[in-house]
Amino acid sequence: MDVRFPKVGEGADGGKVVSVLVKVGDTISAGQTILELESEKAIAPIPSPAGGKITAISVKEGDTITVGSVLLSLEGGNGDGASASASPATNKAAAPRAARPVVADDDDDDLLPAATEDEGPVPAASPYVRKVARELGIPLSRVRGSASGGRVVVEDLARYIGKLESQVARAGKYAEAPQGLSFPLVNQDFAVFGPVTSEPLTPLRKIISVRMVENKVTLPHVTQFADADMSGIEALRAQFKADYEKAGSKLTPTPFLIKALVETLQKYPKFNASLQEVAETLIIKHYYHIGIAVDTDAGLLVPVLRDADKKSLLQIAKELTEIAALARDRKLSPDSMKGGSFTVSNQGAIGGSHFTPIINKPEVAILGLGKTSLKPVVTAEGKIEARPILPLTISYDHRVIDGGSAARFTVDLVKAIETFPASAVKL
After folding, report:
1. Which of 39, 84, 105, 179 is the residue whose CA sits 20 to 30 A from 368?
2. Exposed, middle or buried: residue 24 (CB in 10 Å: 0-12, 13-18, 19+)?
3. Active-site residue, 398 included
4. pTM for the whole structure
């Protein structure tokens, strides 16, 4: 019996093997984890659908696998064989639809023959995938879909681009992107200018690359800049710091800022919305799930703090610590990074001032926070004082939000920060 990688959920069509937890000769049971897979910005355990003795292992650490890839072979299987391996007839029929790993080899089976409307049908794909392909200039008729029924998903587009890059690399020159792409692919030999090292992109970095390009190209970004006086919040932190430590949490500025943000979002619901592009409808969300961008060694991850409007400052502080630790240890589940309504990118712990964050589509705005630092401020009495000033920016989708609304939102957010009530901090 061949155990194949199953379809484990929407969008989970493949990934990179980060560890193989069994070896040839082991006897395993149905449901036992056999490997860990890096997919959709998370590391997920993959269980065996059947039990038996392992006679062969077909993957190793670092391999890229897709739905239908053979993981290992069993003898004396005890379990539902149909779930582990389809019948030979079924496998034969499905074989042309199986996607291949992104590798620089001499096999271009992932690049289907060019087709026009008269030559053949365009494969099935969601409106979102069709829009990404259209913006990147990728003809869907040239992409082999890896999902059920040959449906094309975002990962197939990334795989297609990888194949094109391999073609150009084999040609050994810098060339205009073939097969309909509307931008050139870089394939320059930089070693002629001096010493270099080469690092292959990880599956996570490839996903980030595709999504950042799509977000930046398809959304008309405008960014609003402001500064907020953190004197009041810093005084509250000093006053209640010991109480929070006794309750098992550090009282950092971030929970305050999230509370102030949610208060402002409730006054400006269009900032907590998504544009349904196909239906041409604006979806106003009545929940406040705040995405928290976390810097990790593997790349940027955005776990979601759910129902921030219903949680106390202490609950938010504890949960922020927990999800940041899970993100850095790569233990976030795919579901924990879905469903956000607004994202915060906080670089304050690193340093720097204002920056222009890219909106996390399908959201319509994002808040960027810099490092709080002492700056001279002219008070209402005309005196000059050193105050802790927080630089902040709001990037917004100009299709949904006008400049006047963004200015008012920013002014009210600054006010919510500077007048944060002590009653919201008390335990």
Report:
1. 39
2. exposed
3. yes
4. 0.63
